[in-house]
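Researcher: Structure for this, please.
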Amino acid sequence: MLRSIRFTLCFAVLSLFAAGQARAADKAPSTDAPKLLSVERIWDAGKHNAFTDLIRFRDAWYCTFREADEHVGGDGMIRVLRSADGREWRSVAGVTEKGIDLRDPKFSITPDGRLMIVAGGSLYRGTKTLQGRQPRVLFSADGAKWSAPERVLDEGHWLWRVTWHKGRAYGMSYVGKPRDSTEEWPLRWVTSDDGVKWRELAKVDAPGRPNECTVRFRDDDTAVALLRREGGNQHGWIGTSAPPYDKWNWTEIDARLGGPNFIILPDGAMWAGSRSHTPEGPRTVLARMTTTSYEPVLTLPSSGDNSYPGLVWHDKQLWMSYYSSHDGKTSIYLAKIALP
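Model: Predicted structure, token format:
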């Protein structure tokens, strides 16, 4: 009986210690530095190649991005590359929509095993001034043959990234206003069962012109968001929401973001990629992240027009796609990083 009591007490103490260590790790991550193992340029065929994402699908690598004449304006297309080994890449798809600039394609995998892309569909009518926009979704069973872009949500919205969790898709959709407008940009937390028909879960109280946002889910079902803001001090926000996901709690970070993305590793650690605004100019960085902190710790070869990373954890390495103009032309790069 005494031995049983001792065992129970010992187990309880160890459990409390483990819980405390987990909380401490979330608040104070390791100070060891990640190591850049390699960087390769994998595409530069377009005039302007930008806004990447990366995924593994059916034992192959896929990278997608926008290919156009310039950063803004024109009818941008969605380019999809495939690689068996992450070294040799070839184009397997080029998706266009007449009169529409398809921007910022982002991957996800649907519950029924299809590859999905969500993208912005912007209308310029031969100018560099935005005339209208509405999100598009498209699907593929093999990564090469894609359905025609289909409009979702409402005119003016931009559903910037989709994440699937327990059979349902989630994302933040924002409604931008003209640059000279003093109006806020409404942010909507939305969900879908099929990626096509969406409904609103909550209106998100996020001032400062919130826009690009990545949402991921932890093992305890908590949703975590990394949000870019264009107004006020322009500092990014990190948010958390617990089921039923009708409320968000936010923490402001001491950094501006551009193309924010992050990944949650099997051990629960979070790593983010984004644009960093340095005295030397914009750079693409990798940052340690918790639910209340964001700390850039590695700068990728980059400058000028750059950032918008895709992140995949594979074979105990972080694979990171991004674009940059440091070699004189906006091109697509793939980095491999060893994490501490």
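Researcher: Any notable elements?
Model: The longest strand covers residues 48-57. The first helix runs from residue 2 to 27.
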